[in-house]
Amino acid sequence: MRGNLSLTRVLSLTLSPSHDEQSLDNHTTRNTTTMADVKADAEALVPKFKFERLLNQDQAGRRTSLYGTIDSQPALLILERAPFPTSTDYFNQAPTSLRSIKNLGANDIYHWYLASSGSINRPNNDNSFSDLKINLIYPCTQKHIKKYSKQGVRLVTETPAIYHDHVRPYMLAQRSAGRLNWVYNIIEGLKEVEDVIYRTPYNPDAPNEEGFLLLPDLNWDRKTLDALHLLGLVERRDIWSLRDLRKKHVPWLRHMKTKFLEATTRIYPTIEEDQLKLYVHYQPTYHHFHIHIVHVALEAGATQATGKAVGLESIIETLEAMGGDEEKGMDSITIFYTLGEASDLWNDVFGPLKSGGTVSPPQ
Fold this sequence. Notes:
By secondary structure, this protein is an alpha+beta fold. The chain has nine helices and 14 strands. The protein starts with a helix and ends in an 8-residue tail after the last helix.
């Protein structure tokens, strides 16, 4: 402070300010110093927090409310993950700065991990200190790059005619490109065997049309129950999406739903059946019928939004309300859903249909 006052006197002699101007300058200097002191005092409070109990954890575990004390006075500490920085330097350093990387599973080109981003000391093999869930796709394809890139979104109308003439051939092309190898690895018991929570008896010589299994989705960290996300896979390969479901499949769908709920609540006993919801995607990421089972508290992002997720019960009710025989199905109705502008379906089918152009054959 003494140095600042000396500098002020020199300036006063040189510039000859008025008495009021000099008073304002001294007042500003005092305020700046005071603000610095306030910030320093505030920053010193956080390390003094002594944790007593967890009050709440929400936003799929990304925000945590803690109760404790500071200098014997009650205090609340609310921790919330900030968005990742966007600097190039950060992204260059992030993969090599991770600590305690633990692989949760690997199947074909897909790998998933838990890791720690900070320097907190932890006991060996204690995953409770991991604060990052990491997915790695290696080697990835151009389709993966498009899926995970920022892009505009469109709402499209898929009539039965558009489905049969254009979308069904696109699905066939996707299934023929080897993109389902990781699914077949699970069904055939070649990968992720230890992760399977429930499955019907499997006979590789005679695949069971009623068969199905349940395991954690690769996007779940496997520890945050409010963010629980499981995946139900069917063994049969003739049902590619909800479009292949027919009235005759209703008993099978209800049976599968019951078994999935029973298995989930048995493995995770703190969760009750009315805390779970089941849905399918349309369009799905891969064209082998599967069901998502998630906790109702899981933050409903884009993958659960209208135009992407369709409730299993809604599908069953739609099938039961249909007229016609047992072969009547979901391929006979118009479906509305969203597509990214970088997707093949938008660029090759719905974009050209909108502009009156020619639909490209599936690649």
